[in-house]
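To whoever is on call:

I kicked off a structure prediction for a single chain this morning and the downstream step that reads the tokens threw a length-mismatch warning. I double-checked the sequence; it's 120 residues and nothing unusual in it as far as I can see. Pasting both halves so you can look.
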Amino acid sequence: MNMPQETRRDLVRKYKETVRPAGVFVIRNTLDGRVYVAGSLDVEGAMNRARFELGLRSHRNKALLHDWIAHGAGHFSFEVIDRVKERDDPAFDRAAELGKLLELWREELQCNGDKGYNTP
């Protein structure tokens, strides 16, 4: 694809300036219902990274990785369950808002112990 260098630079700059959606996602074991709940300021990217790491057998959560290897990728689902609602307020703290959402969902889904893969 031949495009003028200036146009390409503008497209790259716009892409880098785009704010990615922040939010919370869940990886669910469809066999036993156990869940792994995580969040990120780039929720889609983090979810893709988790899927990639599991595929490479290098995910940091060893219990989740063990079940992924034992049961196979077909028995896990990935889902974004909530997103940070952006505001124009200059004092708005996306990271703090994400932290609150993550805490709420971890409590709601009880993702620790026998029901989940997260550690307290």
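Update from on-call: the warning came from a stale cache, not from the record. Cleared it. Sanity check on the structure: The first helix runs from residue 5 to 17.
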